């Protein structure tokens, strides 16, 4: 029944009453062209970063069981796939390794080996002349026999000793051709140390995207399967260095510190459960802010789509638009290629 400014119903419900509001929100929603014209946020291919997994074996593509549609690439297959991503206009890929268990040790020594699979992959991508940014993770968990992001003494994660190794890891990645170093370890002071190390070694052009607000989350499980750290970590906890899901003010302090130490961009991880953090970071600092739609988020949406519980095409796009609406300048998402294809197709 039309509302006429009073609690009494109109005598003629078929005709607008005197004083009927002139503002009708549905007018702008009536047609497709109008909805597009007044759209407040848009998702584009330039907003996408594609996380990819690489292994040192000959098998071109090994499926990740807990992430249907995601594979671990051989180096050659990765170059091919990255070329396809670049052709779609995706600006950057983020490279994560599956390390041979025989190469893992408590110190994560393979992380600072210039011949490790990450460096192999970066050199191969650059040698192929592919016009795309390459981001490398600075953390030890794929390389350590205990599955933690840092060096250990007993049950203690050693902060400063770990930072020294992260600087070495960042330097070999930069020397291999990495464009963006992305420290995901959450050790105190690592951004400043890595920035100083890169600059001193002549890599002042290499950017840093800090995992500035990385939470100790249950949404990382499938990723740990993909990089082989789930079995090594076991039931171990990362609560002493990753953030508590209960905290928001702490995230602002972490971001402020990383920016002061030289981060060029910051990231919130995970994504969807932490959209409030994305918005608060963007509003507070007005710097390039990214979010990671992590493996658990991917697995949930993919599984629901496969079972017919959700319309996958719709909810994937809706979830990514949610990141943009929250203030993210871009999103790391395993859906990047299929979303880019959909955007290109119109």
List the helices and strands and how they pair.
Layout: H1 32-37, E1 48-54, E2 61-63, E3 71-73, H2 75-87, E4 92-97, H3 117-127, E5 133-138, E6 151-153, E7 156-158, H4 159-176, E8 180-183, H5 190-200, E9 207-214, H6 221-227, H7 230-233, H8 249-260, E10 265-269, H9 275-285, E11 289-293, H10 295-306, H11 312-326, E12 330-333, H12 336-345
Parallel strand pairs: 1-3, 1-4, 1-12, 4-5, 5-8, 8-9, 9-10, 10-11, 11-12
Antiparallel strand pairs: 2-3, 6-7
How would you summarize this macromolecular structure in one to three sentences?
With 346 residues, this protein is of the alpha/beta class.
Description:
It is built from twelve helices and twelve strands. The chain is α/β, with parallel strands linked by helices. The chain has a single domain, classed as TIM Barrel. The chain has an eight-stranded parallel β-barrel with strand order 1-4-5-8-9-10-11-12, surrounded by nine helices. The protein has a two-stranded antiparallel ribbon with strand order 6-7. The radius of gyration is 23 Å and the shape is globular.
Distance between the termini: 39 Å
Low-confidence stretches: 1-9
In CATH, the architecture is Alpha-Beta Barrel
Helical proportion, percent range? 25-40%
Would you report the number of β strands?
12
Which radius of gyration do the C-alpha atoms yield?
A: 23 Å
- Give the overall average pLDDT: 93
From N to C, what is the helix and strand string?
A: HEEEHEHEEEHEHEHHHEHEHHEH
CATH fold node name:
TIM Barrel
Question: Given the structure, what is the number of helices?
Answer: 12
Oligomer: single chain
Q: What is the H level of CATH, i.e. the homologous superfamily? A: Aldolase class I
